[in-house]
Write a structure and sequence with these properties.
By secondary structure, this protein is an alpha+beta fold. Helices cover about 20% and strands about 25% of the residues. The protein contains 3 helices and 5 strands, in the order E-H-H-E-E-H-E-E. Strands 1, 2, 3, 4 and 5 form a 5-stranded antiparallel β-sheet that branches. A hairpin with a 5-residue loop joins strand 4 and strand 5. Helix 2 packs across helix 3. The radius of gyration is 15 Å and the shape is elongated.
């Protein structure tokens, strides 16, 4: 229903992209009346993304590894905060690490309802899970 929405969260939380009733990943290509730039500017994604990131971090248990790994999970959150879909966007090469990332998202759901100012029915999140060789765990990614 609306064009992609850009937002950022503390620690470069997650990228989000709007998806309306059409369910398209990029609804700008076929949306008949996308919201104006002014309407999109009223959406403050920061607090919503920060809360989502905290919930996911609390549920991520990646296990031990001796190598650096990065997994990207792409998932869609509905208007009420429900998890509508989930898939790997990039595998780490380790089934255990990938499964831990998917499980973290599933356990963290449901999320907060989408911000009231957002007119779409759902958002698609690109969430990055990183493990470095020193064993430090970080969660984040670049906002789209």
């Amino acid at each position: 229903m609306g064009p992609p929405v850009s937002a950022s969260a503390p620690s470069n939380g997650a990228g989000i992209q709007g998806s309306g009733a059409s369910g398209l990943a990029n609804p700008t290509q076929s949306a008949p009346n996308p919201p104006s730039v002014a309407a999109r500017a009223d959406v403050d994604w920061g607090p919503w993304l920060a809360a989502l990131q905290r919930k996911v971090e609390q549920n991520w248990i990646p296990g031990q590894t001796g190598t650096s790994r990065r997994t990207v999970v792409i998932f869609t959150v509905g208007r009420a905060g429900d998890l509508q879909s989930i898939r790997l966007g990039r595998t780490s090469g380790s089934q255990q690490t990938d499964d831990a990332a998917l499980t973290a998202i599933q356990r963290a759901a449901p999320f907060l309802p989408l911000p009231e100012a957002y007119e779409g029915n759902s958002v698609t999140i690109n969430f990055t899970f990183d493990i470095n060789v020193l064993g430090q765990l970080t969660v984040g990614g670049s906002a789209k």
